[in-house]
Amino acid sequence: MTRVLVIIEKGENSYGAYSPDVPGCVAVGDTREEVERLMKEALQEHLQMMHEENLPLPQSQTEAEYMDIPLSA
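The structure assignment produced for this chain is given below.
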């Protein structure tokens, strides 16, 4: 098992997901639940293929942090 950071973005009509540490592996869905499921499937297939071809699995280089930014009144 490997742990992968996934970014989920809400668009006007759909949701998109990607992993900064696994370039090219993306998913789009009508709901958040759908995009999460599709992204998990895409990552499983992508990483399984890499594993079977004896390619090194991507190591997480990305961190996410929410920051509170004060604004002047």
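Interim note for the steering committee: The chain has a mean pLDDT of 95. The CA atoms of residues 48 and 57 lie 9 Å apart.
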